[in-house]
Design goal:
Elements (H helix, E strand, L loop, with lengths): L8 E4 L5 E6 L5 E8 L13 H8 L10 H11 L2 E6 L4 E8 L3 H13 L5 H19 L2 H13 L13 H6 L2 H11 L5 E7 L41 E5 L4 E10 L7 H12 L5 H8 L4 E10 L4 E10 L3 H17 L4 H17 L4 H15 L5 H9 L3 H11 L6 E6 L6 H6 L3
Helix pairs in contact: 8-11, 8-14, 9-10, 10-14, 11-13
């Protein structure tokens, strides 16, 4: 099978903005995404959540589109879509429209991220919105459990803090704080811009998106930020319980892993596919199909610049929680002590490769892949090379990684449900 690599042109504008152009001549759409290398892990603790706050504020108006209504109406009139996201290491903004509206999309995105007005009255209104967002997370255990797990596995490190902040930190953020944060971190040399889709004349050159065109950024043409990262050690606590009166316990059982620079990320992806990738995986078969203990159960990894984690996530029957934890712990023991079968290995590899191909079908898929790869590792690994690496993963590689990272003493369990601190020891014993 011929593996199609993403074709793109990489250049840098005079103001330092890195640009990737990925022509897809047959695509009816175009997606523009800009990712800034700033996220919650780089914020002062007392202002935790201000990158997410700023993500909201850029949609409140700028020098060209003065009000939230004007910002939204431009894209709505084109039938397009747009959004933004904040992670622990990045903040991104994107727009997707029909290919004939590329010029409008660039004008809109450039105005959005270069000169937001950040008005005090808009801040006060949006603060209320984010407070409701915090309430939503707190009322939704399926969403909140990820934060609880990272607080546990990265205990004492900035990676253990959540992205959105708290009601207390949010109230500390004033206009001057947010403007200073924007001026210091949202500048061209600290960003990646990706355009993917039917780019027309932009497919081979980038003069039309020069600093004098769409992405002016004022005078903020400063050098790359020095963002030192401390080594992250796994916390000593093994179980963390967030009490909530619920009909179901949401949990994550997992362990600290490595960074997204580590080549072992490929065998880890195979492990994830074997243990919890799809409805034929170990976790789905053992936890849901054989025992009916959960509606959802899945595995994933979250990798950062200096550390990461691997986990199995599930919503489980309260009455049979102990059985469920034992069965999930058995899956970690199984991958650690026994070689996966050749059939399981092939299924996992095909699952990854097939899914990866599907993730490259649209302009937004391609834009997100290029943007995230370039923002994190500073390079884009061709799909053909990734397929070759994944195809070469062996059963012994998988076992070595499992032995190193999934030993009982390294497993961590986070739970949200009707359980109290006195229950911790009982659940801790189930991990070993």
């Amino acid at each position: 099978m011929t593996i199609p690599d993403i074709q793109y042109h990489r250049t840098k504008l005079r103001n330092g903005l890195e640009v990737l152009l990925a022509p897809m001549p047959k695509s009816p759409t175009v997606t523009a995404i800009i990712i800034f290398k700033i996220g919650s892990r780089y914020e002062p603790g007392k202002y935790l959540g201000m990158s997410h706050y700023l993500e909201h504020m850029v949609f409140k108006g700028n020098d060209i589109f003065r009000t939230p209504h004007e910002v939204a109406a431009v894209v709505d009139a084109l039938g397009g879509s747009y959004n933004a996201f904040t992670t622990k290491e990045f903040t991104g903004f994107y727009i997707k429209v029909g290919a004939e509206f590329l010029d409008t999309a660039l004008k809109w995105l450039g105005a959005l991220v270069t000169e937001p007005l950040i008005k005090t009255q808009d801040m006060e209104m949006e603060r209320k919105v984010i407070l409701e967002e915090i309430n939503m997370y707190n009322d939704t255990p399926m969403m909140q459990i990820g934060d609880i797990f990272e607080e546990l596995v990265f205990s004492g490190a900035v990676l253990g803090r959540n992205i959105i902040g708290s009601k207390q930190t949010l109230h500390r953020v004033k206009r001057t704080t947010l403007v200073n944060h924007f001026q210091k971190n949202y500048f061209p040399a600290n960003a990646i811009l990706v355009l993917a889709g039917n780019l027309g004349k932009l497919s081979s050159k980038s003069k039309e998106i020069s600093p004098t065109g769409y992405f002016k950024f004022g005078n903020r043409n400063i050098g790359i930020l020095d963002k030192p990262v401390k080594t992250v050690k796994a916390g000593k606590e093994k179980v963390k319980i967030a009490y909530k009166k619920t009909d179901q316990t949401h949990l994550i059982l997992g362990a600290k892993a490595f960074s997204y620079f580590d080549k072992r990320r490929y065998p880890l992806a195979v492990i994830s596919a074997i243990m919890g990738g799809g409805m034929s995986s170990w976790a789905f078969t053992e936890i849901r199909e054989k025992r009916g203990l959960a509606y959802y159960v899945r595995s994933s990894s979250e990798l950062y610049k200096d550390a990461g984690s691997y986990l199995i996530n599930a919503g489980l029957n309260n009455d049979k929680l102990e059985l469920a934890i034992k069965e999930i712990a058995k899956l970690f023991r199984r991958v650690r002590t026994k070689l996966a079968s050749q059939k399981e290995l092939k299924r996992a590899k095909d699952h990854i490769i097939g899914g990866t191909l599907l993730e490259r079908e649209t302009s937004s898929d391609v834009a997100f892949i290029l943007g995230s790869e370039m923002a994190s590792r500073g390079t884009v690994t061709p799909l053909s090379q990734e397929v070759k690496i994944i195809s070469g993963v062996t059963r012994s590689e998988i076992k070595r990684i499992a032995e190193e990272f999934f030993a009982p003493e390294k497993l961590r369990l986070a739970m949200i449900g009707p359980w109290k601190a006195k229950d911790k020891k009982r659940f801790e014993r189930l991990l070993g």
